[in-house]
Predict the structure.
Amino acid sequence: MIKAMVMTGHGINCDRETREILEYAGFESEIVHINDLISKKKKFSDFSLIVFAGGFSYGDDLGSGKAFAAMIKNNLWDELIEFKNNGGLVIGICNGFQIMNHLGLFGEKLGERISALLHNESARYICKWVDLKINTNSNCIFTKGIETLRVPIAHGEGKFYATDSVLDELEKNNQIVSTYVENPNGALRDIAGICDVSGKFFGLMPHPERAAFFHNLPEFHKLKEKLKRDGEKIPYDADGIKIFRNAFNYLKNNN
Amino acid sequence: MVQRIEIQLKIDDARSKIIKKEINEEFSNLINNVVVSDVYTLDKDISKDNFEKIKELISNPICERISFENDCDFGLDFDFALEVGFLPGVTDNVANTASQVLKDALGVEIPVYSSKIYYLSGDLTLDNVKQMGEFLSNTLIQRNHIKSYDEFKSNNNTMEKIVPKVNLDDNKKPLVVEIISASDDELIEIGKKGILDVESGERRGPLALDLESMKTIQTYFKDVKNRNPFDIELEALAQTWSEHCKHTIFAAKIDDVQDGLYKGYIKRATNDIRKMLGEDDFCVSVFTDNSGVIKFDDDYLISDKAETHNSPSALDPFGGAITGIVGVNRDTIGVGMGAMPVINGYGFCVADPKSKPELYRGLNKTNPALSPEKIMKGVIAGVNEGGNCSGIPTIQGFMNFHEDFRGKPLVFVRTVGLMPKEVCSVDSTKKKAIPGDLVVVVGGRVGKDGIHGATFSSEAMDSGSPATAVQIGDPITQKKVSDVIIKEARDLGLYTSITDNGAGGISCSVAEMATECGGCEVDLEKVPLKYPGMSAWETWISESQERMTLSIPEKNWKQFNDLMESRGVEAVVIGKFTDSGLCVVKQDGVEIMNVELSFLHDGQPKKELKTIFNKKTFDEPSLDNVKINKSLVEISGKLNICSIEFVNRQYDHEVGSGSILKPISGVGEIISDSSVTRPILTSKKAIGVSQSLFPRYGDIDPYNMASCAIDSSVKNLVCVGVPFGKIALMDNFCWCSSDEIERLGQLKRAVEGCYDYAVAYKAPFISGKDSMYNDFKGYDKDNNPVKISAPPTLLISSIGVMDDYEKSVSSEIKFEGDLVYVIGETKNELGGSEFYSYLGEKETGKSYIGNNVPSVDFDVNSLTYKKITELIDKKLIASSMPVNFGGLGVAFMKMTVGGNLGLDVDLSNVSKVCDLCDVTTLYSESSGRIVISINPNDKEEFEKILSGVQFNEIGKVVSNKVLNIKGRVQEASIKIVDLETKYKETLGGY
């Protein structure tokens, strides 16, 4: 039994479906309120995967993810470091990626911010399906065996930003895991998601949990009509589920 | 002391660029550069050391610079600094979050106020900047301060420190209002202008009670109570008896209809349908609760509710719309024992955003009405913030444009909820407060928000008084409340009843719940306040947002409160439910309200209304010069037909992972009339949601406006796969001048249509709402009085459950070679059509109306829809486009643009009964029609099933990207790209 935790509270809002999809991928998964972690009712160490799910923690009020990250820094930082040292996996999706950025989970020095997610170039929230190119040289555990991914984005602050030297470093280390085929938000070097050097901490702006099922695809109605005419069955899965299956399989094989 | 923290992006900032663009569009390129700073004003000192602790929590050093008490000069070059902050008492979500972060990091409560500084460069005068300040803010809720570069520098590189704290006098004592001996004139005055405030000598704002109601109250206090009422009692009666709460017009006897419009038509339709459906009745709880409830599957129910928030949105479009959407979310959280919001919907009726009417609420160009563009952008942004932050997919919506929405916009908001059939083994739709239960209020605190909003005027506001009319929703506070109630407390069985706080605040919610057990007793001083100094009556009727009222057995209180505390949600016991038959309110132990519940809820005198209806006739335009190719391209870009993709793109319609048929459909990204959502990810069942409205038809006959809206809202759902016969409806009447006999005549006509067609389609109304006075009264620039009445508008929303989402059908064409059919007869019905509107605007600058408004043959259409349901069930339809605004022409346009494929169609056979010219055939809006494409292999079976219904094979899908239309006389050949460009460019720039 491999346990996954979906963190919630203060405006995180993709917890319910993320939990469902983790279950579908094989995990035993639980939604845990950050206040229950702070009050020690729950512990990171009870889980093998932590998901910082999407949403609007604190309404993006101080800038996306800032306030939630501050809560973690103030109250749960040591526990999170311990979780990392014990080899746990973390994925941050959308608001979760923004939170991971503020926590500084991707650089050489843990806790030091190296990047930011700025307002989209249009200065507007965008909900749209995009195509991602996956860096197959990356050692990101979540994207093993995936080359492209069709997923929706839904964010107002998704423009990935870092200095040139940081971007070069990320590139050199193959930490740039996924890039947009058509850049929707002005992200530097088309970056949609990055991982830490171990490949165990992964964050991305798009929502793979919203692309787990075939019928979620915007082309669903045309595709299913084609399959029907070809006498084929309509599949249930779409590529987004692979992200979570990869994590599950890795943990299964490494425990 | 007061301290300031300023944060600024040190790299290229998209927000600043967009603001610069917007200012320059409005002020003819006066601005060279804008830099925006976020400012937090702290009303309590923190040390430099503590600042260092929080510095990196509230800013990101990678991209931002931060200054504390101007300790770091950003070295900006600019000409003017313009600061925009809130007025006292306005909800400041950013500041609240900042305060929480500071408290968590430093362990002390620090009051915070947020503001923004715009550093503007350009050849500017102070007047320019003042105007820009008004452009960038809403002076009803926000303040502007301006400094030139030199003033800023000499003020130690900063703006003034302003703390918009609410300062009120000590609470005013409850007032006894002399009404027993009051003359009729005085009663009228109180009802119209409000209670006379002894200290100020001013009246407090209208109670909206007419003389008859005032006299009823007078008699009650004289005969039953033997005393004069306290102010709070009159205010509470006014709230409870208001049009908003009691729907007096729909309840009144009207002409010879004793039961009135609601019971006599709307509710009767539902009752009759439920009887007809018998065992197939899918209604569960209708009209009795905050939302209507129908069956979903064996274990779950779904709720639906549509609301309007028109008047607040006219004053503050953003605040009005966000308050609307989070408010209707609460109608979901508060239905039965609580439902989880799973779908949001929106509808904005506004004037052309490019039009610039000059309207004022006051004489001499004072108190200007907001421009249609500002209203449009504001209401869109309000639902954006409210819906996106709440994590509810906003998957369905519409915009409707009409010049008469320029005075008052209509803002519709809608929420569908999901709830288990049973909670703790008990029917989840049944709730009942029990005598002895605690009255508990959960969520936000109470301020002066929304008190007598209707009478608000900016003159009444000074620097220390809170903005009372306008409320700004706080979706995150509400999200916390919603999560802990729906996902935790509900299923623990900790409460016996729940309802939301909307209009009338706790005065309505508590008194409403008190009817479940027979009484209540409230200790008003226990109600948590945003700031001290509120009077008792204000606390009782305030409409502050994000609050739910619950009844909780005393033994459960500790567990309930512990749970709330652990989720950061405030819960407070404010009294007890009783069986005394009374609504009793005390302040510090002194009784200030003691009114029989029966009088409070049923004491209002029933109105009797008279109506008159005369059908008007209009000029019939000539179609002689219309070319179908040119007109079809042009009409594709007409408001009401063109794409509103820019709205749907900024609303998260994917959250929840349940979206199947999305608001934007096909490779060509057309706007869907309906959506399909799977609310439970382990079930194949899905919810179809749609809506329809035809305000222009109402000019000719409101009966047809109603029948067509019902027909089309049903048809839209049938087309995507919701079975005919399983569709429920909601009615939202937005009327105008409802004190005029002619307007009431129109209303009655519409309501008659509602009954006839709901019954004919066996589509029950499960919930409804009305807003009866959508009129603007003011002046033009020359001080001429102006009254603009919004067109009487009936929105019909539809919802239904389909068994298998895999069978859902989208509207765009899909494969070359597919056969294309038109189902239904095309008649000479251009009256009130979008085509007439287009033609009139083109030829005279004003819409034509005409006379032949579409009429609905429900026998024919019922059969058609039944057959479509069968065809979809047998998977014989590849695409189905309901024919609505703009007739067949627009249907073809959307199908081709959506599929990015061409069509070859011959229209000469489409109208069999009526002999129509090509223009009428292409643009008539006759009801009951659908354009369908099918796999050629399915032709035989498809046609066999359709026997008995009029259908015409009109052509096929072709690979070249051209729409070829062959009529009897005219022919058109239009490139899809030209249609697409027109369809998308009209609103594409917003």
Q: What stands out?
A: Chain B touches chain A through 73 residues (CB under 8 Å). The CA atoms of residues 500 and 548 of chain B lie 5 Å apart. The domain at 3-154 of chain B is CATH 3.30.1280.10 (Mth169; Chain: A ,).
